[in-house]
Write a structure and sequence with these properties.
heterodimer, A: 628 residues, Potassium Channel Kv1.1, Chain A, Four Helix Bundle (Hemerythrin (Met), subunit A), Helix Hairpins, two-stranded antiparallel ribbon, 22 helices, 4% strand, B: 215 residues, Recoverin, domain 1, two-stranded antiparallel sheet, 60% helix
C-alpha cells in the first residue's frame, strides 16, 4: 500500500462512522494501538553527516532497512543515533524517497554504486520514478554491456586453458583465439594467405593474356594457364575444406556451428569446386558451372574472421536493415512512378529504347542518381519534359531525404524504443499496482483468519497501519453483513448454488475436476512472486468449511495433505520471517482421497496458520480493481 | 553529396522538447492554500496542538498545495478498498466533507469533520452522519437517497462476497432501515427521527465509541 495512504487512514476510519447507523451487526473492536503514538525525531548519522527525520517518515516503508527493525542493528547507544558507514551523498536520495515517496536517480553517480546502496537499504530499483527511470535503465544497460565486453575480451585473450580439456576443446580454442598458441597462429596466417591467393587467382584468371602462338584472339589467362590455375584452386579448396572439417569437429555445438554465418560462407566458398568436379564437362551445363564460379568470390568474406572491422560493418548493416529497407521502398516507389510516366510518354516514337516499363527502370535509376549514362534518352517533347522533372526530382528524392530519412529513422528508432520501454514500464507499474492490491486483499483474508485465533502468535509482523486497515474492512463487512472472499470460493459458491448440492471440495492447484461456468481459472498456477508486502496464496477449504470458516481456520487434515505439496517441506511455524506476512499452502486434492468424510468440521486448534514455506504461492490474477 | 549532408544532419541531434501535458491535469487551478493559524484551529476544533500538527504534516505531505480534490479523494479511498468500487461512496463522503461546496477540501474542512467524527459528542456524530445520507441537503432522507448510499457501500464490497451478493440486497437493507428509522411512516427520515432511533439502538451507540482512538 502506498506509504502516503497511511496518512489518510485516520480519515477513512473516521468516515466509517457513516456506516454505523446502517450496520446490521455490531462493529468489531478496533485494534489496540500498543505502540507509542507520539512521533519522535530520529537521528541518523551517515559517515558523519547527521540526518534527522520523523520516525513516521521512515515507518512508511516497513520492508526496507530503515523502516523495519533491522535499523536497530545500527543503533548506537552512546550517541543515541543510528550510524551507517555509507555514502552520505547517496543517503540523501534514499531519505528523499522516504519523504516524498519517489526515488530519484542522481545522474552524476555511478550506476553500480547506486545499485549497491539501494540493495543495502533494501529498496528495489523498480520504484524509481518515471522522471529518472529511463536514464537509470539506459545507464544500467550500458554498464552491463561494457562489463560483458570487458569480461569477454578478458576471457578471450587471457584466460588460461582449463586443466583438463580434451584435444577437441583445445582445438576449438585454437581456432577461436589464434593468439593462444603458435600452431594456431601459423594456421591462421596460412589460411589468410590462401584466401588472398584464391581471391587474386580468381581476379587474375580473367585478365587477357597474350595469346599463344598461332592464335590471334586474346585469351584470358585462366584458359591459357588452365592447369596452373586449376592446381592453385585445388590447393586452396583443399586447405579450406580441411579447415572447415576441423572446425566442425572441434565445435562444441555442431548444429549451432553449422548455422552460423561464417560456416555458411565457408561452405559456399568451397562448394562450387566440388560441384564442378562432379559435373561432367558438358557444354550445356557449363553455363551454370560458370555461374557457380561466381560464388568463389565469397571467399573474400572469409577475411571477416581475420578482420574485426569487417565484422563490425556487417553487424552495423544488419542492425540498420529496417531503415535501409524503407529507403529502398521509397526509392522503388519513385522509380516505378517515373518509369511508368516515361514509358507512356515515349510510347509513340519508333526506335524508342523505352521498350517496356521495366526497361524504363534503368533510365529512371540512372537519371535520378544523376549518373546519366545516356544509353537511353527520351526523344519526344513530353518525354524530355518528364525526363527533366525526373532528374530534378532525383536530386530531391534521393539526395535530400537520405539524410532526413537517416536522422528521422534514428529519431523514430529511439522513440520506438522509448515507447516500448514506456509500455513495458507501464505494464510493470500496473502489474505492481495489481499485485499490491492483491497483497492487501490477501492480507485482509489472512487477518480475518487470524482474528479467530486466540494465540496471536503471528500478528506481530503486521504494522499498526495494517491492523487498523483490516479492522476497517471488517467493519465494512459487518455493515453489509457480507464477507469478502476471493474469486475461487466465489466461483465455487456460484457452482454449488447453481448445481444445488453441497459437496466439500478443496481448492486444488492441479484439480481439473468440474471447472465449469463461473470458475474457469481454478486450475491456473502462478509462480511465487515476491512482493514488498506479501505473497499469499489463499486457499479456502471446502464449502462445508465455509460455514465454519469465519470461526475456524483450515483444518489439520488439510495441513497434512498440503505437506504433500509443500515444496520446501518445512512447515515449522516461524513468525519471525519478515518477508512473508503469510503463506498458506493451498491444498491439493489427490483424487483418491475423497474429501467428504475426511474433513471433520471441528478441527483441533492449530496454533496459527502462518507457516513459513516456500511452496508455490499462487496468486489470483483478477480482483475487481477500481480504476485509479 | 547525400552522404555528406547525411552525416552533417546526423551530428545535429536535437532532443525533442518534452511535451508532457500529463501533469497539467494534476496541477491545482487554485494557488496553494494555507490554513488558518494553529491557535485558531485549536480553538475551533476538539484537537490538541500536537494532534493538529501530526494531521497537518501528513496532509501537507500528501497534498502540497493544501487542498484535496475529488479525484484524489476517490483514489485514496480506492486504495483502502481494493476489492470493489469505492468511488461512489467517496463522492458522497467528499460532499459531506466539503461543507463550503467549493469542489475541494481544505485543511480546515478536513480537520473540522475529523473533529466531529473523532472527538464530537454522540449527537454531533449522528448529525454528521445524517448530513452524509442527506444527499441533496434538504433536511430529509428519502428512500432514494438511502438506496444510493447503501448501494455505494455495497459497491465497495466488490463482486466476490460470501454469501453471494444478490441484486436486491441494497434494497432490502434500505427497507429494513426505513422500517426502523421512519417513525411516522411518512416516507422520509428527519434529523430528529434519525437521532432518536439511533439512540434507541444499543449496537449503534456502542459502535460510535469505537472510533475515538483513531489519531
Amino acid at each position: 500500500m502506498a506509504a502516503g495512504v497511511a496518512t489518510w487512514l485516520p480519515f477513512a476510519r473516521a468516515a466509517a462512522v457513516g456506516w454505523l447507523p446502517l450496520a446490521k451487526k455490531t462493529m468489531p473492536k478496533p485494534p489496540v494501538d500498543s505502540s507509542s503514538r507520539s512521533d519522535e525525531i530520529l537521528y541518523v548519522n551517515v559517515s558523519g553527516v547527521r540526518f534527522q527525520t520523523w520516525k513516521n517518515t521512515l515507518d512508511r516503508y516497513p520492508d526496507t532497512l530503515l523502516g523495519s527493525s533491522e535499523k536497530e542493528f545500527f543503533y548506537n547507544e552512546d550517541t543515541q543515533e543510528y550510524f551507517f558507514d555509507r555514502d552520505p551523498e547517496m543517503f540523501r536520495h534514499i531519505l528523499n524517497f522516504y519523504r516524498t515517496g519517489k526515488l530519484h536517480y542522481p545522474r552524476h553517480e555511478c550506476i553500480q554504486a547506486f545499485d549497491e546502496e539501494l540493495a543495502f537499504y533494501g529498496i528495489v530499483p523498480e520504484i524509481i520514478g518515471d522522471c529518472c527511470m529511463e536514464e537509470y535503465r539506459d545507464r544500467k544497460k550500458e554498464n552491463q554491456e561494457r562489463l560483458a565486453e570487458d569480461t569477454e575480451a578478458n576471457e578471450l585473450t587471457d584466460a588460461p586453458l582449463p586443466p583438463h580439456s580434451t584435444p577437441r576443446e583445445r582445438l576449438w580454442r585454437a581456432f577461436e583465439n589464434p593468439h593462444t598458441s603458435t600452431m594456431a597462429l601459423v594456421f591462421y596466417y596460412v589460411t589468410g594467405f590462401f584466401i588472398a591467393v584464391s581471391v587474386i587467382a580468381n581476379v587474375v584468371e580473367t585478365v587477357p593474356c597474350r595469346p599463344p602462338k598461332g592464335s590471334v584472339k586474346d585469351l584470358p589467362c585462366g584458359q591459357k594457364y588452365e592447369l596452373a590455375f586449376f592446381c592453385m584452386d585445388t590447393a586452396c579448396v583443399l586447405i579450406f575444406t580441411f579447415e572447415y572439417l576441423m572446425r566442425l569437429f572441434a565445435a562444441p555445438s555442431r548444429c549451432k556451428f553449422m548455422r552460423s554465418v561464417m560456416s555458411v560462407i565457408d561452405v559456399v566458398a568451397i562448394m562450387p569446386y566440388y560441384i564442378g568436379l562432379v559435373m561432367p564437362e558438358n557444354e550445356d551445363v557449363s553455363g551454370a558451372f560458370v555461374t557457380l564460379r561466381v560464388f568463389r568470390v565469397f571467399r573474400i568474406f572469409k577475411f571477416s574472421r581475420h578482420s574485426q572491422g569487417l565484422r563490425i560493418l556487417g553487424y552495423t548493416l544488419k542492425s540498420c536493415a529496417s531503415e535501409l529497407g524503407f529507403l529502398l521502398f521509397s526509392l522503388t516507389m519513385a522509380i516505378i512512378i517515373f518509369a511508368t510516366v516515361m514509358f507512356y510518354a515515349e510510347k509513340g516514337t519508333k526506335s524508342s529504347s523505352f521498350t517496356s516499363i521495366p526497361a524504363s527502370f534503368w533510365y529512371t535509376i540512372v537519371t535520378m542518381t544523376t549518373l546519366g549514362y545516356g544509353d537511353m534518352v527520351p526523344k519526344t517533347i513530353a518525354g524530355k519534359i518528364f525526363g527533366s522533372i525526373c532528374s530534378l526530382s532525383g536530386v530531391l528524392v534521393i539526395a535530400l531525404p537520405v539524410p532526413v530519412i537517416v536522422s528521422n529513422f534514428s529519431r523514430i528508432y529511439h522513440q520506438n524504443q522509448r515507447a516500448d520501454k514506456m509500455r513495458a514500464q507501464q505494464k510493470v507499474r500496473l502489474a505492481r499496482i495489481r499485485m499490491a492490491k492483491k497483497g492487501t486483499v490477501n492480507a485482509f483474508f489472512q487477518y480475518k483468519e487470524d482474528r479467530v485465533d486466540c494465540t496471536a502468535l503471528c500478528v506481530k509482523n503486521r504494522s499498526a497501519f495494517e491492523h487498523q486497515h483490516h479492522h476497517l474492512l471488517h467493519c465494512l463487512e459487518k455493515t453489509t453483513n457480507h464477507e469478502f472472499t476471493d474469486e475461487m470460493t466465489y466461483s465455487e459458491l456460484c457452482m454449488t448454488e447453481s448445481v444445488g448440492f453441497r459437496t466439500s471440495r478443496s481448492t486444488s492447484l492441479s484439480s481439473q475436476q468440474g471447472a465449469t461456468g463461473c470458475c474457469p481459472r481454478r486450475a491456473r498456477r502462478r509462480a511465487a512472486m515476491r512482493l514488498a508486502n506479501s505473497t499469499v496464496s489463499v486457499s479456502r477449504g471446502s464449502i462445508q468449511e465455509l460455514d465454519t470458516l469465519h470461526i475456524k481456520p483450515t483444518s489439520i487434515p488439510q495441513q497434512t495433505r498440503s505437506s504433500l505439496n509443500a515444496q520446501a517441506g518445512d512447515l515449522k511455524l516461524n513468525c519471525g520471517e519478515h518477508d512473508f506476512t503469510a503463506a498458506i499452502i493451498s491444498t491439493p486434492t489427490p483424487p483418491a482421497n475423497t474429501p467428504d468424510e475426511s474433513l471433520p468440521p471441528s478441527p483441533a486448534p492449530i496454533p496459527g496458520i502462518l507457516r513459513n514455506t516456500r511452496a508455490t504461492a499462487y496468486t489470483h490474477d483478477t480482483f475487481k480493481i477500481s480504476s485509479l | 553529396m547525400g552522404a555528406v549532408v547525411g552525416t552533417l544532419t546526423m551530428q545535429i541531434k536535437q532532443r525533442r522538447p518534452s511535451t508532457d501535458t500529463a501533469d497539467d491535469d494534476m496541477e491545482m487551478t487554485m494557488a496553494s492554500h494555507r490554513p488558518e493559524g494553529l491557535n485558531q484551529l485549536e480553538a475551533q476544533t476538539n484537537f490538541s496542538k500536537g494532534e493538529l500538527q501530526v494531521l497537518y504534516r501528513g496532509f501537507k505531505n500528501e497534498c502540497p498545495s493544501g487542498i484535496v480534490n475529488e479525484e484524489t479523494f476517490k483514489q485514496i479511498y480506492s486504495q483502502f478498498f481494493p476489492h470493489g468500487d469505492a468511488s461512489t461512496y467517496a463522492h458522497y463522503l467528499f460532499n459531506a466533507f466539503d461543507t463550503a461546496h467549493s469542489g475541494s477540501i481544505k485543511f480546515e474542512e478536513f480537520v473540522a469533520a475529523l473533529s466531529i467524527l473523532l472527538k464530537g459528542s454522540v449527537t454531533e456524530k449522528l448529525q454528521w452522519t445524517f448530513n452524509l445520507y442527506d444527499i441533496n441537503r434538504d433536511g430529509y432522507i428519502s428512500k432514494d437517497e438511502m438506496t444510493d448510499i447503501v448501494r455505494a457501500i455495497y459497491d465497495m464490497m466488490g463482486k466476490y462476497t460470501y454469501p453471494v451478493l444478490k441484486t436486491d440486497a441494497p434494497k432490502q437493507h434500505v427497507d429494513a432501515f426505513f422500517q426502523k428509522m421512519d417513525k411516522n411512516r411518512d416516507g422520509v427520515v428527519t434529523l430528529d427521527e434519525f437521532i432518536l432511533s439511533c439512540q434507541e439502538d444499543e449496537n449503534i451507540m456502542r459502535s460510535l465509541e469505537l472510533f475515538e482512538n483513531v489519531i
